Task: inverse folding
């Protein structure tokens, strides 16, 4: 009915792409190491939600506008890069070391991490460019269900990528207790997290549209 093109190739290619380390994976890794598995999973779910912006944009044709407008592309790119750099600088400037007895408002903290994940992904124009260039290769453009096909493949890619990120969070989140019990190492880790986030922002800033 929907007449997908080379669907098995899409499954293979999407899995390989989701397993390739990128901005989202590095972001979830840094959050998992610094705050634990739950924080990493919440960040991954935020990225999952943020990806819906790009899926909707692809379906509605907004990705085409972005690809053809250098000004709009630069605006979104610098906004996303600036946000990541802001988070990195904030991590570098923090002076409070983690302790095992420290109590934090978990709900507020997790909600904040979720929102950061949403913004980090939603403001990454390379994701929009990916959906524009990759997904149509597996869709029959002449089909009346073109938009349904595009939406379905986008959802699958987002869901699959989120599962990969959750696995990453579970693996790297197990190191949280080690850092919590070693305040000096924790401080070093916080700085590393900050540099990673700043690096991601700089990477987006100097990434070309092509």
Result:
């Amino acid at each position: 009915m929907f007449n997908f093109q080379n669907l098995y190739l899409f499954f293979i290619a999407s899995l390989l792409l989701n397993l390739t380390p990128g901005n989202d994976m590095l972001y979830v890794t840094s959050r998992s190491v610094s705050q634990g598995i739950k924080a990493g999973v919440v960040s991954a779910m935020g990225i999952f939600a943020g990806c819906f912006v790009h899926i909707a944009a692809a379906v509605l044709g907004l990705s085409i506008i972005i690809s053809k407008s250098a000004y709009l592309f630069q605006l979104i790119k610098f906004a996303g890069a600036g946000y990541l750099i802001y988070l990195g600088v904030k991590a570098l400037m923090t002076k409070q070391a983690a302790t095992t007895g420290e109590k934090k408002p978990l709900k507020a903290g997790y909600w904040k991490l979720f929102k950061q994940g949403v913004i980090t992904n939603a403001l990454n124009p390379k994701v929009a460019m990916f959906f524009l260039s990759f997904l149509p290769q597996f869709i029959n453009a002449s089909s009346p269900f073109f938009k349904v096909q595009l939406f379905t493949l986008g959802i699958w890619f987002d869901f699959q990528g989120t599962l990969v990120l959750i696995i990453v969070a579970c693996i790297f989140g197990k190191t949280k207790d080690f850092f919590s019990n070693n305040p000096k190492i924790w401080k070093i880790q916080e700085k590393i997290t900050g540099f990673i986030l700043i690096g991601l922002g700089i990477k987006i800033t100097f990434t070309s549209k092509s």
